[in-house]
Write a structure and sequence with these properties.
Blueprint (H helix, E strand, L loop, with lengths): L2 H10 L2 H9 L3 E2 L18 E2 L2 E2 L7 E6 L30 E2 L7 E8 L2 H8 L7 E7 L7 H6 L16 E6 L2 E6 L6 H7 L5 E9 L2 E2 L8 E3 L2 H6 L4
Parallel strand pairs: 6-10
Antiparallel strand pairs: 1-2, 2-3, 4-6, 4-12, 5-6, 7-9, 7-10, 8-9, 10-11
Helix pairs in contact: 1-2
């Protein structure tokens, strides 16, 4: 791929804009030598205004989503894409969130421009475990774990029971729930089915990939080993 198209696809501007960057001598190699649009050089040596290029296509990000933002590109309020660099919103192929967290749920959210990877993660066949921590409005009754693990819980307005889920009680009103599905507001609706209400909800891991110490509202790129952790139990 020609450098003009490559750099334009990363969101640095239209091809015309990137051509102007070349003409202005703002695209160089790591040694400061000016590059030209038809040069063939290793990706990692390319610089724009002395800064390395953004990661190439095949990018997967992990974000610690804060409350009050939605997993949408069009919303009257703040959206998760506002938390990424502006260039990342016009990359080609586009970055998409992998599933959704609602406005009132925080925690681990993935983005990728790899369509095959996205569908592999969200496919029911993949059985990727998502772990959430919830604080509840009322004390747990004590029988929620058995109900959630039974594979017989039927959510309101649905005809297919939920797959078994694992509940770990952390306190009278604090629990960790591991699910392998991604139904609409699933965790909130599961506790609602027991007569309880989720007050706060955070996703802390997907597969073996944990949120860790990533600050709220921040994001980072994942390497290949970390992406593989998504599919590890």
């Amino acid at each position: 791929m020609k450098l003009v198209k490559l750099i334009a696809n990363l969101g640095y501007g239209s091809r015309k804009d990137v051509t102007q960057l070349f003409r202005a001598g703002r695209i160089t190699d790591a040694d400061g030598e000016v590059l030209y649009a038809d040069d063939v050089v290793p990706y990692e040596t390319i610089r724009v205004d002395d800064e390395p290029l953004d990661p190439p296509p095949g990018l997967t990000l992990m974000m610690n989503k804060p409350l009050g933002v939605t997993c949408s590109r069009k919303d009257p309020g703040r959206v998760v894409y506002d938390l990424l660099p502006p260039r990342y919103n016009v990359r080609s192929p586009a970055l998409s969130s992998v599933g959704r967290l609602d406005r009132d749920t925080s925690g681990l959210l993935l983005f990728t421009d790899d369509g095959a990877l996205l569908h592999r993660i969200i496919s029911p066949k993949a059985q990727v475990t998502k772990v959430y921590e919830a604080t509840l409005a009322q004390d747990l009754h004590g029988d929620e774990g058995e109900l959630f693990a039974s594979g017989s819980l039927l959510l309101a307005s649905e005809t297919e029971p939920l797959a078994p889920a694992a509940l770990e009680v952390l306190g009278p009103r604090h629990a960790r729930l591991s699910v392998t599905e991604g139904r609409y507001h699933q965790v909130r609706r599961m506790f609602a089915a027991t007569g309880n209400h989720v007050e706060t909800l955070q996703r802390i891991s997907i597969g073996a990939l944990a949120l860790g110490a990533l600050p709220l509202g921040e994001w980072r790129a994942l390497d290949a080993d970390e992406v593989a952790q998504i599919f590890a139990s």
